[in-house]
Amino acid sequence: MSTVLVTGGAGFIGSAVIRHVIHNTDARVVNVDKLAYAGNLESLAEVDQDPRYAFEQVDVCDQAELERVFREHRPDAVMHLAAESHVDRSIDGPAAFIQTNIVGTYNLLEVARAYWQSLDEAGQARFRFHHVSTDEVYGDLEGPEDLFTEETAYAPSSPYSASKASSDHLVRAWRRTYGLPTVITNCSNNYGPYQFPEKLIPLVILNALEGKPLPVYGEGKQIRDRLYVEDHARALWLVLNEGVPGETYNIGGHNEKQNIEVVHALCALLDELAPSEHSPYADLITHVTDRPGHDL
What we know:
The chain has helices at about 10-25, 65-75, 85-90, 95-115, 120-125, 160-180, 200-210, 230-240, 260-275; strands spanning about 5, 30, 55, 75-80, 130-135, 180-185, 190, 215, 225-230, 250, 255-260, 285-290. A seven-stranded parallel beta sheet has the order 3-2-1-4-5-6-10, with helices on both faces. It has a three-stranded mixed beta sheet with strand order 7-9-11. With about 300 residues, the chain is α/β, with parallel strands linked by helices. Helix 1 crosses helix 8 and helix 4 (about 95-115) runs parallel beside helix 6.
């Protein structure tokens, strides 16, 4: 791929993808991001002066601006990561999730389809639309030995996961109806550099260092597969270049832990690396009322 358009490229996973592409390939990258609360261009400081990098502050819900970006940059592929992604925020205000995750994906599909149809035969054969989604579309597993597969039925539990499930279905429909060459990936919970501090691992670290309570939902027995974001970025690039159009690929870390295990591990590491008057940090753990509809 010579030019890749990455939506949500100033976000946590999107910025890791862009850093990976600039550092490890010869491709050009066009970062399309509206810079909402979780977008942070500082996460791209190490690549933003590279001549192969370009930034467009554009909302995926703005169809006219998307059309301009496609005309000017002529991408060979789209990696669609722009999304509202925090479950708690989706419970408090689902409208933004419907707008960005569903309407935004529809807009991007329509602009990409028109652009793809305008390409010559070789360009159409080369083009890919890679939609990046989440394992939360599958809902709960049956038990600790169970695994999601690419054939697992969708059973989303929250407004967030329902909006992502809807966007997945749109992508599949555009493949089936119009022939747009799409691939979908569904990943487990990411962690790593530049993660927005509302997520569990950075929240625990920052709160602990400041002596604030470490909130844990219920008993903290919810199990999540933790995937390092730079491993995920490498996997996404592999799928973009080697994936078969029409296929779905699940990306996981095979690293399942209860949330309470993760919190205790972080506290132990902080006791060792940053002892303070707040140590032992585990004393700051505070159990709070569980989230509605929380996947176990």
